[in-house]
Amino acid sequence: MMRHFLRDDDLTPDEQRRLLDLAADLKTTPFMRRPLAGPKSVAMIFDKPTLRTQVSFGAGIAELGGNPMLVEGKLAGIGVRESVEDVARVLGRQVAVVVWRTFLQSDLDLMAAHAGVPVVNALTDDFHPCQLVADLLTVREHKGGPDGSLAGLTVAFVGDGACNMGNSWLLAGTTAGMHVRIAAPQGYRPSAAMFARAEEIAATTGGSASSCADPAEAVTGADVVVTDTWISMGKEAEEADRAAVLAPYSLTEELLAHAGREAIVLHCLPAYRGKEISAEVLDGPQSVVWDEAENRRHAQKAVIAFLLEQAGR
Ligand code: NVA
After folding, report:
1. Across-strand partners of 194?
2. What SS3 class is residue 304?
3. What is the distance between the alpha carbons of residues 145 and 128, in angstroms, rounded to a whole number?
4. Whose CA is nearest to atom 6 of ligand 1?
């Protein structure tokens, strides 16, 4: 069966660990794996804005020996000009891997079902799993155990917990055996189904998943503090409402003080200083966001190498 990376729990705990090992190795030895040598092409399609994802995939695919091919989402008109299934069938005859950023997870699932090549989620409304591989690599570099283990670490995600990043932290964090706390107002927390899935994973790894309304409570004692924009792509019409409801969740120095000076701060970027995070925190000594942004490339190279290996290619 063709393996894809559509959501964080597509990886078992053991696979996630091996993927992070590979990402760390690729960071120190960038050209050690060349599964796309030829070069084989990888289609990169973006139906939403992108900077880090396009650049890190483009550079990473080149480092793996391949040809990063930008497929203009608007011109392709996937699901509009022709069906997702037909696009998938065509892409699968031309490229080795499909990387797609889009809105609906169900469209990504359709792409995966019909492409015949590995499909990678470059962000949907529901998940951002490539970001989480980079985030966990970053946590490992700063907080990991001697064997790189993340088990037992506590992460607090504050703000819009119902966005793709909140969901992905729940699933990827518990897969790593971490304790994942989401601090968000009612209506901005991951669904009950998402928590149920995270708890199922946590039961096998020793991690946990919880939510609360008080950001200070969530951040107290956390090893890692994470936030994300309050206005995810596609939610622009809700800007005013969200800014009002989420204001108490802004990651300021005062809030971060509850975690202590040893905690690290992650943000997948783009960041809005003075909104979900203060400039002092984003640009301060506990922030590792630039390591995190760099790690996208190493993480995604590991994802592609892993999927191609699983496919025997
Ligand atoms: N939650 C954000 C992540 C941006 C990388 C969004 O979906 O816009």
Report:
1. none
2. helix
3. 25
4. 232
Q: Is the CB of 232 under 6 A from ligand 1?
A: yes
pLDDT of residue 74: 87
Ligand 1 atom index nearest CA of 52: 5
Residues of the chain with pLDDT under 50: none
What are 195's two structure tokens?
């928590």
Amino acid at 141: E
SS3 string of 43-108? EEEECCCCCHHHHHHHHHHHHCCCEEEEECHHHHCECCCECHHHHHHHHHCCCCEEEEECCCHHHH
Atom of ligand 1 nearest to the CA of 125: 7
Tokens of 119: 């499909």
Measuring from atom 8 of ligand 1, which residue has the nearest CA? 232
Q: Given the structure tokens 């792409």, which residue do they identify? A: 111
Query: Measuring from atom 3 of ligand 1, which residue has the nearest CA?
Result: 232
User: Can you give the pTM of this predicted structure?
Assistant: 0.98
Which pLDDT belongs to residue 73?
87
